[in-house]
Structures are given as structure tokens and as C-alpha cells.
Amino acid sequence: MNFSKPPIPIPQQIAVLKSRGLLFRDEQKAAHYLSNISFYRLRAYTYPFQDNSDPNHPFVTPVSFEQIIELYVFDRRLRLLVFDALEKIEIAFRTKIIYHFALAYGSHWHEQITLYRDANRFIRDLNKLYVEIDRSTETFIKHYKNTYTQPPNPPAWMSLEVTSIGLLSKLFENLKRGPEKKTIGKEFGLTNPMILESWMHAFSHLRNICAHHGRLWNRRLTTMPQMPYQTINPFLTNRNVYNNKLYAVLCCMTYVLSIISPGSNFNQRLRDLVDSCGLVDLREMGFPADWREEVIWK
């Protein structure tokens, strides 16, 4: 089937939405919003309130354009809150890997193939790291290359500072599960480093969604964290959660933040945020009814 839908001007976009049952309090203001937030982007926020089995997508829940914008703003604030928290986690993760492995194996430990489980993955990931180093414009990278001839690439505390969290999580997963890796896991409150591997992949995926301004509130995640059976600090009492929904990752995040950033106000800011938008269905985000009773959210 060939795609044949034409682009339509903003007044017609409003007319289409009205014909489907969306309410408008101020069409002039709505036109301004649609000139800055695309009709198609907002479709992700109107979707839950429409009958999407019908080709005309009629609204089956009474809702206004202004409420859709309120939901959109909620999601934006949620994304910024999550992104800010993930920055703290990423920096701590990077710091602990560099520190423990450098003390044990020297400045260029990340280039030692014997430390890794899968040699092919190691070669692939290291080549990607070299690409990121060569692409970097950081002063400390330039200084190393202009000053030293051997080894040809900078030490771990420089090289791994310029790599993405996605590549860093892959390097960490491929490292053999020795004492250094177990120590890092424990410093994040986890007795099993495999759980930390899973969490960092999930955090990386979530960070990429935030960085590309993707929708969070009712998203189904494709990279999911494993729920641990045993943790050093209290985690979840109710472990019957959907790990492909946002709540599961938020639980992992707040658990880590309570350890690496004890003064963090992430919990309070999240509670305030979910209370600020009446249109938000917390079940769509995977929140159980008793989530506020969990120790990690108090």
C-alpha cells in the first residue's frame, strides 16, 4: 500500500482534531502551540484517549487540547528530572570503574584483553572507543596526544571520560566478574554485579530517550532492568512490577541515588510531579497502587 496522506495546514489540523471529538477552549492559542509542537508529536499524547481501531481515531474519553498540552508538559518535566538524575548515576559509574580497575591493573587496563570475557566483543568495543577518542575535542585528549607517544591512546581516566554511557555499559558487562567488579556492584548496593550490568544498560537506554526528547510517561521500554532478589539496602517489598515500564527503572534509579547522592531530592520532586497532572494514569507507567509505601520512595 502506498502512503498518500498529504500535509495539512494548522487550521485544518485543529478542524480534524475537533471532528474527532477533542475539545478546545482557545483555538488561537492552540494554533500557536501547533506551530511549535508538531501535530504528529502530540499524537503520542492523544493516543490513549482515542479509539485507534477506528481509522478516524475518535476520542472516546472527554479531553481538551489544553489537557493534552498539560500532559505533554508533564512528560517534558519528567524527562528533565530523569535526565538530571541519570547524569549523577553515569558519572558515579564511570568514576568507580576507572578507579577500581586502574588501581588493580594500571593506567591502560581497559586495553588488556585478558580482563574481558569475550575477545571479539572486546575488540569491537575497543575500536569504537578509539573512534570516540579520535573524535573528541577535549583539551586533555589533545594534550596527551601532543605530549606522549606511547601508549598511543590516553589512560583509562581520560579515554573513558569521553565515551558514551552506552559503550561504557557494554565494556563493563564484558569484563570478567572478578573482585573489582564485585566491589563496584556493592558500592551501588548490589550483591550481584550482573544486576548492575542490567541496570546500566537500562539507564543508558533511558538516557538516550531523554536526550532525543522522546516520550516517557507511558512508554514500553525495550531495554529492561532485572529486578534483584537480594540487595544490600532495602529495595522493593512489592516485586510484582512490569520491568518494561518506567516505574521499574525509576525504582532502580532512586535506589542508586540514595547511595551515591544521599541528599538527592529526586524522590520528592517525582512525587510532586506525578501529583501535578490529573490526566496522568500512573498504571500506564507501571506504578502499583501502594508505591508510596515502599521504603525507597519515602
Q: Ranges with pLDDT <50 over ≥5 residues?
A: none
Beta content comes to under 5%
Let me know the average pLDDT.
95
Number of strands: 0
Helix content: 40-55%
Describe this structure in words.
This protein is mainly alpha-helical and 298 residues long. The relative contact order is 0.10.
SSE layout:
Layout: H1 10-19, H2 27-34, H3 39-46, H4 65-105, H5 119-135, H6 139-147, H7 156-159, H8 165-174, H9 179-187, H10 193-211, H11 246-260, H12 266-275
Helix pairs in contact: 4-9, 4-10, 4-11, 4-12, 5-8, 8-10, 9-10
Q: What labels describe this entry?
A:
298 residues; mainly alpha; 54% helix
Short characterization:
The chain is mainly alpha-helical and 298 residues long.
